[in-house]
Amino acid sequence: MPLPPPGSSACGARTRCRFDGTAVDASAATPLVDVRGAHALPSLPRLTVALAVVVAFGRGTALTLTGVGLIVPRGRDALPDRVSRSPALRTWSLRLPLFAASASAAVVGGAVAAARLAGS
């Protein structure tokens, strides 16, 4: 059986794939195709995977917040000392609010433009 051209709708629910010189039928029940043929997806217990994702996210969030809590006070104490000794940092620390204001204006302008386009 010849293969349909790529991108054609002749495949339907089943797709005939050529892999390593061998034609294999793949369907929704067997979506994985490799050297050994077409297979079903490996069955994993959904509850276990969901709980593992939640635990990993919680641990990552806790580590991130702990790191921020440890670094911010040290940076807050060290920054004024370094700014007072460095002319370049002193110059940039005076210009930083202008950059922040222009970035905020760009965000607000983009939001207004998006709202106007969505309304029209």
Describe this structure as you would to a colleague.
With 120 residues, this protein is α+β, with helices and mostly antiparallel strands. It folds into 2 domains: 12-41, no CATH class; 46-105. The protein has 2 helices and 4 strands, in the order ββββαα. The chain has helices spanning 46-85, 87-119; strands at residues 15-19, 22-26, 32-34, 37-39. The strands form 2 sheets. A two-stranded antiparallel ribbon has the order 1-2. Helix 1 (46-85) crosses helix 2 (87-119). The longest helix has 40 residues, at 46-85. It is elongated, with a radius of gyration of 29 Å. The mean pLDDT is 77.
Features:
two-stranded antiparallel sheet, alpha+beta, 120 residues, 4 strands, 2 helices, single chain
Summarize the structure.
This protein is an alpha+beta fold and 120 residues long. It folds into two domains: 12-41, no CATH class; 46-105.
Biggest sheet character: 2 strands, antiparallel
How many beta strands in the DSSP annotation? 4
Total individual domains: 2
* Coarse structural class: alpha+beta
Order of helices and strands: EEEEHH
Quaternary: single chain
Instruction: Write out the strand line-up for the largest beta sheet, numbering strands in chain order.
Output: 1-2
Proportion of residues in helical segments:
55-70%
Mean pLDDT: 77
Please state the CA-atom Rg, rounded to the nearest Å.
Answer: 29 Å
Task: Characterize the overall form.
Answer: elongated
Low-confidence stretches: none
β-strand amount: 5-15%
How far apart the termini lie comes to 52 Å
Number of helices: 2
